[in-house]
Each structure stands twice: as structure tokens, then as C-alpha cells.
């Protein structure tokens, strides 16, 4: 019997150009007019002192779909829950918007969807709009696409092939190999969250 | 990753600080008044004052939290007692139930004494409602004591919850440590002692309560002393601890509101006033009343600064920050954030 997949994402910071935000926003109908995103790309310069080489880095941020998610343990209603395949989801029907999850998340992955956002979303996204209630939203690894055998929208549209999505339980999967090799590393693993988003740094690339 | 960023949050601010303050104070009031009445000195007026004040405080505090919610209707999920079966790992689940049941049992415990008081029975509407519960006044003493203990247990739970809530956020060194619940528990009982001293000196005003007032003053001096020691431990922890704790230290120990307002006027001054009171005594109630007001103000300031000064450590700048601190070391600066500069 096939093992249940354990989904994870690897992001290569060497090739990221920050093109995924729009695709994610349209797929998941985030309140972009309020600058609220499920995935957010920081544009940073590194170095520059003492005539050093200045490097520019795009740094994407999203829910890390932790194996030990602090946002789930603090959620009083059970709105934040974890699927067997490792994806951490938010149930809009149960979420009361206390924002404890936003306080608990070390990755700043949560944002508010308010009553106003829901109303404005109807105008912005038209008849395709699917949100009906406020919640403290976040990335879902596009679970609705993954269940149909598709990749998350950000992975599908990533022009630099920076984002890889795969199954950690499949030893032949590229994501699984990169994680196992140690080239791709999680953020702030010392907190005990056991994140499932891994990053390849350019430092790793050059050494 | 090359650089780390340190920032505080603007998600839970003074609204939640008020909630935590009133929750801790209200819970401790019920615990102290019921224990006083059952085991130290029977005092019906004190029970009524404390438990009704607690009811009002918890109502206001819960209203602050309720208004802060994004989806107000969904609160029904945590008001349902089954939430303790469905989500026993979430302290907000426990806290909501502790608060609700403490309010219920503390009022039921006070009912027989309210029924004996003309002020309440003659009051329009309230008097009528009290009349419907006249049978509560005829319950045997053993049942009444059990009701008191139900209120006490839920009161202790409420006090504990206000501390454990912040402790359950692992990304912030200031909050995620066992000192926070301890500090909040001591502070809650200290502020409750201060509130009861105000009630005894300004509202009830009976000479026969002298011993009880002295007992509360002595206990409060001890609690403030313990609180000062815990604050010193936090000073050490934040100053010499993790990088995010040191950023918290940079915020707290550079703020006159924290140093002068909370530590100075919220702890040290009332400690000295009450210490003088229990060792040499005062000729009037004014100094103790002043100390009690300062302790109550300090109780709020503690929670205010704790919610504001919790510093997150992240490999990228937060989009929801009110204070940003970039770590020294490899230079990492944000030149722009796509597609605009701020959320």
C-alpha cells in the first residue's frame, strides 16, 4: 500500500525573482487591495559595506506547514487543523478570528480577512469569489489543486523554477532528495516547529 | 540565512492587555473573597463586593476580546463546553470556560447574601430577578461551600490562563518561559488584594475589619516583594539571554513608562508604603489607599508592556511590525517590498 504523502516545498533563493505573489493571490482570492498575501516576497540587498559585493535577494515567505504547528495548538475552535498529508488548513466556518495563531506563528504567515475584505472581494473577484466569512487566513499549499494532482499555483507559475513541491515520503522525489542532502534547510528549526518549507541559500550554492 | 530581523507585533495590543489585566484581577478577587469568607472571617459584604466587581470586570474584559474578533458569531464554538474535549490543547478554550463558569458560580455563591440585603432586593429589575432565585438561599451550607469551591477552582483557572496564554507563543523569548505565568499569577493576586483594600477602606468601612485589612496589607507586601524578585529575574533573562530577549530588554529598559511607571510607582512605591504600614502603621487610610491605586495601575502597565515588548526573531522583516530592529552583523537591508513597501 502506498504511503500517505508528506508534502513539502523547497525554494531556491538563487533563482527566485518574486513572480509568484500574483498567481497565488488570484488562485486563492486574497485581499490584494489591502496588500494581504498568502505568499509574500521580500526584496533585500545583502552586503554593501566596505566596497563589498552587493547581492540582491528575493526572499519568499509563506506558511511553513509545520509538523508541530504552534498556530494549531493555540487555536481554540479547531479551525486550524492538519491534514494527513501534512498540509495545515484553516476552516473559515470555525475560525472566530482571535488571532492567537498570528501571535504563535514564528513565520509571520497569518493575515486577517475581515468582513470588509469579504465584501470587497465580491466586487474584486466577481462571481468566482468563494469567501463568505472572515478568518485569519494563510497559505494552504493550494490543497484544492494538490488533491486534483496539480501543483500549487506558485510552483506552477514560478518562472525561475525556484519553487519545487513534492513528497518527503517518496525517496525518488526531487524535493525529498534536496532535503535529505542537507542543501535545503528549514527556517528557525530550533523552535521545534518542524517546518516543511525548505530554502536553498546562495551561500550553499557557492560552497 | 544572512541576517535576522527583530520586531514586535501590533496584533494583540492594549485591548488584550486590558483583557489579561481584568481577567487576572477578577479571577483572583473571587478566589480571595471566597476563601476569606469560608476560612478566615465570614464577611458577606466582602463576598458581594468582590464577586460582583469580578463579574463586571470579566464582562468588560470579555467584551474587549469579543470586539477584537474577526467573526463574532463564531464565538459560539468556544462557549460550548465541548470545546474542552475537541480542543484541550488550546488555553483560550480552557480560559473561556473558566471565565464563564467562574462568573456563574461566584454569582450563585453571592446570591444568598444578596437576598438578605435590602439594597439588592428593593432594586428594580434586579430585585425581581433575585426573587426567582430565592431557593438558592435555602440550600444547605455544605452545598453552598461546594458552590464556593467551584467558583474558587474556576477563579484559579482564570488567573492561570491569563499567564499561560502568552506562554504558548513559542517565537517570543519574553513570553515563552515559565516565568510569565508565575509573574501574572503573583500580579493578579497582588492587584486583587489592593482592590479589596480599597473596598474595605472606602466602601465597607467597618472598624471590626481592622485585622482583615492588616492581613491583606501584609500579604500584598509579600506579593509585591515576590513580584520585584521575578522582575529582576526577567531583567537578567532579557539582558543576557537570546537575541530576541535582548531586543525586548532594549525596549523595556529604555522606556520610562516601564521603569518609572511600572517598577517605580507600580511596585517599589506601594511596597514601601505598605511595608511602613505593616511595620509602624499609618495614622490614616490615605497612604494605603494610594498604594492600592498604584498597585492596580502597575498591574495594568505590566500587561501593557509585556504585550508590546515581545520581540519576534525572523530571517526577513515582518510586515506587521511596530518596532523593527535589524541585527548587527552581515548587512541585510530591505530596499523594497513587492509590490509596494508596506502591507
Descriptive labels:
heterodimer, A: 207 residues, alpha+beta, Alpha-Beta Plaits, 4-stranded mixed β-sheet, two-stranded antiparallel sheet, 8 helices, globular, B: 343 residues, mainly alpha, Formate dehydrogenase/DMSO reductase fold, 3-stranded antiparallel β-sheet, 13 helices, disordered C terminus, 4Fe-4S ferredoxin (chain A)
Number of domains of chain B: 1
The class by helix and strand makeup of chain A works out as alpha+beta
Q: Helical element count of chain A?
A: 8
Q: Regions of chain B with pLDDT < 50 over 5+ consecutive residues?
A: 320-343
Cα(first) to Cα(last) distance of chain A is: 40 Å
Largest sheet features of chain A: 4 strands, mixed
Rg of chain B computed from alpha carbons, rounded to a whole number of angstroms: 22 Å
State the strand order across the main sheet of chain B. Answer: 2-1-3
**What is the overall pLDDT average of chain A?**
91
The quaternary state of the protein chains shown equals heterodimer
Q: State the CATH topology of chain B.
A: Formate dehydrogenase/DMSO reductase fold
Number of strands of chain B: 4
Determine the fraction of residues in helical runs of chain B and give it as a percent range. 55-70%
- The gyration radius over C-alpha positions of chain A equals 17 Å
Amino acid at each position: 500500500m502506498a504511503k500517505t504523502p508528506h508534502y513539502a516545498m523547497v525554494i531556491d533563493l538563487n533563482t527566485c525573482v518574486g513572480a509568484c505573489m500574483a498567481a497565488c493571490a488570484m488562485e486563492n482570492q486574497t485581499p490584494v487591495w489591502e496588500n494581504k498575501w498568502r505568499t509574500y516576497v521580500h526584496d533585500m540587498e545583502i552586503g554593501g559595506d566596505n566596497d563589498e559585493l552587493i547581492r540582491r535577494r528575493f526572499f519568499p515567505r509563506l506558511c511553513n506547514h509545520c509538523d508541530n504547528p504552534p498556530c494549531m495548538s493555540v487555536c481554540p475552535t479547531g479551525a486550524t487543523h492538519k491534514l494527513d498529508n501534512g498540509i495545515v488548513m484553516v476552516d473559515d466556518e470555525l475560525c472566530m478570528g482571535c488571532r492567537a495563531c498570528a501571535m504563535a506563528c514564528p513565520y509571520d504567515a497569518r493575515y486577517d480577512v475581515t468582513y470588509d475584505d469579504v465584501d470587497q472581494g465580491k466586487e474584486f473577484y466577481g462571481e468566482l469569489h468563494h469567501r463568505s466569512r472572515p478568518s485569519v487566513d494563510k497559505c494552504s499549499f493550494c490543497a484544492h489543486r494538490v488533491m486534483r494532482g496539480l501543483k500549487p499555483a506558485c510552483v506552477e507559475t514560478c518562472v525561475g523554477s525556484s519553487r519545487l513541491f513534492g513528497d518527503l515520503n517518496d525517496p525518488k522525489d526531487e524535493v525529498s532528495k534536496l532535503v535529505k542532502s542537507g542543501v535545503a534547510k528549514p527556517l528557525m528549526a530550533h523552535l521545534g516547529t518542524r517546518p516543511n518549507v525548505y530554502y536553498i541559500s546562495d551561500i550553499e550554492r557557492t560552497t | 540565512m544572512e541576517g535576522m530581523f527583530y520586531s514586535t507585533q501590533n496584533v494583540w495590543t492594549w485591548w488584550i492587555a486590558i483583557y489579561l489585566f481584568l481577567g487576572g484581577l477578577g479571577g483572583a478577587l473571587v478566589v480571595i473573597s471566597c476563601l476569606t469568607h469560608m476560612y478566615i472571617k465570614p464577611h458577606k459584604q466582602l463576598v458581594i463586593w468582590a464577586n460582583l466587581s469580578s463579574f463586571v470586570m470579566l464582562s468588560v474584559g470579555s467584551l474587549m476580546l469579543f470586539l477584537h474578533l474577526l467573526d463574532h458569531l463564531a464565538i459560539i464554538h468556544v462557549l460550548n463546553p465541548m470545546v474542552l474535549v475537541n480542543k484541550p490543547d488550546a488555553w483560550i478554550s480552557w480560559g473561556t470556560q473558566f471565565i464563564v463558569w467562574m462568573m456563574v458560580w461566584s454569582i450563585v455563591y453571592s446570591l444568598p447574601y444578596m437576598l438578605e440585603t435590602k439594597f439588592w432586593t428593593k432594586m428594580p429589575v434586579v430585585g425581581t430577578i433575585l426573587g426567582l432565585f430565592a431557593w438558592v438561599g435555602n440550600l444547605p451550607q455544605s452545598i453552598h461551600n461546594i458552590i464556593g469551591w467551584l467558583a474558587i477552582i474556576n477563579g484559579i483557572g482564570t488567573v492561570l490562563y491569563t499567564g499561560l496564554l502568552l506562554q504558548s507563543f513559542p517565537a517570543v523569548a519574553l513570553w515563552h518561559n515559565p516565568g510569565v505565568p508565575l509573574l501574572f499569577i503573583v500580579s493578579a493576586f497582588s492587584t486583587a488584594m489592593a482592590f479589596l483594600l480599597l473596598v474595605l477602606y472606602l466602601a465597607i468601612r467597618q472598624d471590626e475589619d481592622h485585622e482583615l485589612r492588616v492581613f491583606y496589607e501584609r500579604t500584598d507586601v509579600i506579593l509585591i516583594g515576590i513580584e520585584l524578585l521575578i522582575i529582576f529575574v526577567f531583567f537578567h533573562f532579557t539582558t543576557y539571554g537570546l537575541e530576541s530577549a535582548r531586543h525586548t530588554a532594549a525596549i523595556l529598559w529604555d522606556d520610562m513608562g516601564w521603569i518609572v511607571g511600572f517598577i517605580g510607582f507600580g511596585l517599589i512605591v506601594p511596597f514601601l508604603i505598605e511595608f511602613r504600614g505593616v511595620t509602624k502603621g499609618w495614622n490614616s487610610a490615605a497612604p494605603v489607599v494610594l498604594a492600592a491605586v498604584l498597585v492596580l495601575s502597575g498591574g495594568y502597565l505590566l500587561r501593557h508592556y509585556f504585550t508590546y515588548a515581545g520581540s519576534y526573531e525572523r530571517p526577513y522583516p515582518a510586515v506587521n511590525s511596530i518596532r523593527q530592529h535589524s541585527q548587527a552583523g552581515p548587512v541585510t537591508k530591505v530596499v523594497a517590498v513587492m509590490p509596494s513597501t508596506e502591507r
